[in-house]
Design brief:
flat; 37% helix; alpha+beta
């Protein structure tokens, strides 16, 4: 049975029209599928904008079957970098970029640790 849970960490107030749902097998600890969309007065039913399928398992074992967290962070980094080259440049975007770079560095170190046969702390 598939469970659908709304993710709300991106919302600043109740007026945020973008809705994110995780879709997972009941009692699963890791969600591999997400659906992003919106509801508006003009369009009261859910309007899908994107589906995200994350990698399930080791690509060397399971093959490439989805997006990695690193790939999604790289997309966000690229988008914010574009803002920094435009009229939208600001220190808060620079801080967000630094945070994404820190997340990418941490995930790279985790992968390197696992590849050495060590369980990350």
């Amino acid at each position: 049975m598939i469970e659908k849970n709304e993710i709300t960490e991106h919302k600043f107030d109740n007026e945020e029209p973008i809705k994110i749902f995780s879709l997972s097998e009941k009692d699963s600890t890791v969600n591999n599928f997400y659906c992003v969309g919106f509801v508006s007065e003009k369009s009261p039913s859910f309007n899908e904008l994107a589906k995200i399928s994350f990698q399930n398992g080791d690509p060397k074992v399971n093959g490439i079957n989805g997006l990695t967290i690193e790939a999604l962070l790289a997309i966000c980094h690229h988008r914010l970098s574009g803002f920094q080259r435009s009229n939208f440049a600001c220190t808060l975007n620079a801080q967000a970029l630094e945070s994404i770079e820190g997340a990418l560095d941490a995930l790279k170190k985790k992968t390197e640790t696992i590849q050495k046969g060590i369980k990350p702390e």
